[in-house]
Each structure stands twice: as structure tokens, then as C-alpha cells.
Design a protein that fits this description.
This protein has twelve helices and six strands. It is mainly α.
Length: about 290
């Protein structure tokens, strides 16, 4: 008897370049709450870090701290944090361009794959950093800090381009859609030499696995179990895995130090109002308030 296997349906639908999910319209805004929430969340974190002058050492990803220090929570905190406003704007604009994936897949599926991109891309970064340190004599990868949502952005870019198929215009050149993320990776490195090549490449690698439906087994119950384990592990590593006491530079929430931003402006204005000067007037020492 001939055995015929029915092909397994893909959990990621194909998309069309002629508008079958290639653009976000006003009517679809309500169907992308995860994208909107991510943009708002990353923006709020950036404002907090800027306002309180938080150093990257407090929340950034570093191989030494994550592996040797067991501060696994840094893999998550670094993914949603940005220091420079242009870094935030660039990543959020790129995320917005990929928002069609949430409209096409649905918010629950989009959240699942975003979780995989955050988790697996940082695991890939750790593995590639180990290889660079161990076999390619790149000790700088042990102590260098990285942060930003770029891993996820490049991952979704890869998924979107794989599902679009065909060719697309990239700076006036018609190239296969699946090559666009690699071109973006190269151009990013040329424009921003300090950009994390390993981080961006890790996002592309994980995105390719997602596009090829490698995680078809990652159904909702599995997702919630893995999410719970990840939260417990991150919480445990924060409480018991390592300490930032040696990096504390002042008071504040989690030892984040003194406040800057508009708080610093208010403090400076109050200091100027209360500042006094001593002057000699007609042979008498007089205290005057500075204007």
C-alpha cells in the first residue's frame, strides 16, 4: 500500500507584494496592539533612563555579566532599552514598518514569535560571543555592552521579506526580498560602525528559522509555559544571580543614581533662586540674592 503524507500547513501565511498584507492602513491600527504597546513601552523606558541618567552598565547586555555573573535578566532588559533618541527612533520606525506581520498573523501569534525573537536572539548572541572569544581571539566581546530592540527588528524584517518573496527595490536596486535584511545589516555597519553586528545577525538567523516554520510546535499552551519559566528565571537571576552594588553611583530606584533631564533643570532653577552673594556696600558686608 502506498503511503502518502499530507503536508503540514504552515502557521505563517504567505504575503503578497500587491497589498496582501504589505502595508498598514488606518483600519488596521486596532489590530496591532502589541506593536503599539512595544513602541510606547520602549519610549517610556528611554525617557526613564534619560531622566534618571542611568548608565548602560546597570541594564545593558554583557557576556561576562550574563554568563559568569548569571545576570540573565539583562538579556530582556537590554532588548527594550535605548540610550540615544536616534537609536530609539530608528528601531521603532523599523518596527512600525513590520507591523503588518501582527495584522497578518494576529496579536497572539505575533506576541509568541516576538517572545521567541527576544529570547533566542539573545541566546544566539551569547553563543556567537563565546565563539568569538574562544576561537577567534576577540576578548572585547566579553566586556562590551549592547542594547536595543534591533535583534527583534531584524528578525521580523527577515520573516516579512521571506513571506513577501519576489524582488523589491532597495535604494533603487531590485534585489531578492530575502536578501534585503543582509543588505540592511551591511549598510547599518557602514553607517554606524559601533552597531552590534552579532546582535543584528542573530536576529536575522532566528527570523529565518521562524520564517521556515521551524517553531510550528510552539502552540499557545507551550508559549505560556515557556513564558512563565522565563519570567521565573529572570526574576531569580535578578535576586540571586549577581549584584550591581559595585556599580552604584548614587541614590535612586535600583541604585540608578541621581536624576537628570527635566528634574535637573528644576533643581538648577531652585538652586539659582536660593543662591546668595556677599558684597561690600559702603564699607558694610551685605548678603544679596542672585538674580
Amino acid at each position: 500500500r502506498e503511503l502518502r503524507l499530507r503536508p503540514r500547513p504552515s502557521s505563517l501565511p504567505n504575503m503578497s507584494l500587491q497589498g496582501g498584507g504589505a502595508a498598514v492602513t488606518g483600519d488596521s491600527l486596532a489590530r496591532m496592539p502589541i506593536t503599539m504597546a512595544t513602541i510606547g513601552f520602549c519610549s517610556l523606558i528611554w525617557f526613564y533612563l534619560w531622566n534618571y541618567n542611568v548608565s548602560i552598565e546597570k541594564f545593558g547586555y554583557q557576556y561576562e555579566k550574563v554568563v559568569a555573573g548569571r545576570q540573565w535578566w539583562r538579556s530582556i532588559s537590554a532588548s527594550y532599552a535605548h540610550q540615544h533618541p536616534l537609536h530609539l527612533i530608528f528601531n521603532m520606525a523599523s518596527l512600525w514598518n513590520s507591523a503588518v506581520m501582527e495584522v497578518t498573523l494576529g496579536s497572539v501569534a505575533y506576541l509568541k514569535y516576538t517572545f521567541l525573537l527576544v529570547l533566542l536572539s539573545m541566546l544566539t548572541v551569547t553563543g556567537m560571543s563565546y565563539l568569538a572569544i574562544r576561537y577567534f581571539d576577540r576578548p572585547r566581546y566579553r566586556t562590551v555592552y549592547s542594547l536595543g530592540y534591533s535583534c527583534v527588528v531584524f528578525g521580523w524584517m527577515m520573516v516579512q521579506c521571506e513571506k513577501l518573496g519576489g524582488k523589491m527595490s532597495y535604494f533603487g536596486l531590485m534585489v531578492p526580498a530575502r536578501l534585503a535584511p543582509f543588505l540592511a545589516l551591511g549598510i547599518t555597519q557602514l553607517i554606524i560602525p559601533n552597531a552590534s553586528f552579532i546582535g543584528h545577525l542573530s536576529g536575522i538567523i532566528v527570523g529565518e528559522f521562524i520564517a521556515q516554520d521551524f517553531f510550528f510546535w510552539f502552540i499557545d499552551p507551550v508559549f505560556f509555559v515557556v513564558l512563565g519559566i522565563t519570567c521565573i528565571g529572570a526574576g531569580y537571576s535578578y535576586m540571586y544571580g549577581g549584584s550591581n552594588e559595585d556599580e552604584s553611583d548614587g541614590d535612586g530606584f535600583l541604585g540608578f543614581g541621581t536624576r537628570t533631564g527635566w528634574h535637573r533643570v528644576q533643581q538648577d532653577e531652585e538652586a539659582n533662586e536660593n543662591r546668595t552673594e556677599m558684597k561690600v556696600v559702603n564699607g558694610v558686608l551685605v548678603r544679596q540674592t542672585a538674580s
